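In response to the reviewer comment on reproducibility (Comment 2.3), we provide here a single inverse folding case reported in full, input and output, so that an independent group could reproduce the run without further information from us. The structure tokens appear first.
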């Protein structure tokens, strides 16, 4: 699981490596992935296989013992997309669930792959590809659904989080993080209330607020927490928590003029 737990605490309970023997660790193997550009994926390991990604949303399965590449999947993203991608053509990883590997792509697709062969099971477009959306974040799994956000606030899009059925790829729900054009109505009361705090024709520039990664789930409260990117144009950076039934539950908005960056 990405982050090891649904709330992504990442702490490992394994005890084979400890303070007494950590000095004995050494390199066993290494594997280059055919690029000199950034690698930002968090690899997942299951049953002796490492699943990871590289540039241009290319996915890999490797033997954890010796680094042998078991399969590679290239979604064939058009290189022209680089014009509307903020921060290099990176990918932050995959999700695993019931024999499938889930991959988000730079051209806004969500793809399910067979974990053993790497062959596509289903492939859906999650964005309006006529607009400068992208996906660089890793999908997350919640209650049999695959959650995926998107990026593109810098280029004038409207952010949202989508949930797809893990087996069929069918869209289950979608929640927007910022209000849209008031003339078209609001998807929820929360967005209607949020629109009252925005000024001018904000919808023309999309509004931003894309959920480009950070998505966690609290099973005790049945809540999804999702951080968002910057607003489009003059609008402040925002962060939101989204309840599992797909409507905004609460949100935190930084003070006007504040800015955020990637925290590592």
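Designed residues, in position order:
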């Amino acid at each position: 699981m990405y982050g090891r737990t649904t709330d992504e605490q990442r702490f490992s309970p394994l005890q084979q490596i400890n303070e007494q023997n950590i000095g004995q660790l050494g390199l066993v193997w290494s594997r280059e992935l055919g690029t000199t550009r950034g690698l930002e994926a968090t690899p997942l390991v299951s049953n002796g296989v490492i699943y990871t990604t590289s540039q241009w949303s290319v996915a890999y399965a490797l033997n954890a013992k010796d680094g042998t590449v078991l399969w590679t999947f290239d979604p064939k993203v058009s290189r022209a997309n680089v014009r509307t991608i903020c921060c290099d053509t990176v990918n932050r990883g995959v999700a695993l669930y019931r024999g499938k590997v889930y991959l988000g792509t730079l051209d806004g697709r969500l793809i399910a792959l067979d974990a053993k062969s790497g062959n596509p099971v289903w492939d859906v477009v999650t964005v309006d590809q006529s607009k400068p959306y992208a996906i660089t974040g890793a999908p997350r799994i919640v209650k049999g659904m695959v959650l995926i956000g998107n990026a593109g606030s810098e280029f004038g899009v409207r952010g949202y989080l989508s949930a797809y059925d893990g087996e069929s790829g069918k869209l289950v729900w979608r929640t927007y993080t910022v209000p849209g054009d008031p003339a078209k109505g609001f998807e929820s009361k929360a967005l209607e209330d949020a629109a009252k705090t925005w000024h001018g024709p904000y919808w023309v520039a999309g509004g931003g607020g894309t959920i480009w990664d950070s998505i966690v789930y609290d099973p005790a409260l049945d809540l999804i927490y999702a951080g968002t990117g910057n607003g489009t144009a003059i609008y402040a950076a925002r962060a939101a928590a989204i309840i599992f039934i797909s409507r905004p539950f609460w949100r935190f908005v930084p003070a006007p003029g504040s800015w955020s960056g990637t925290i590592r």
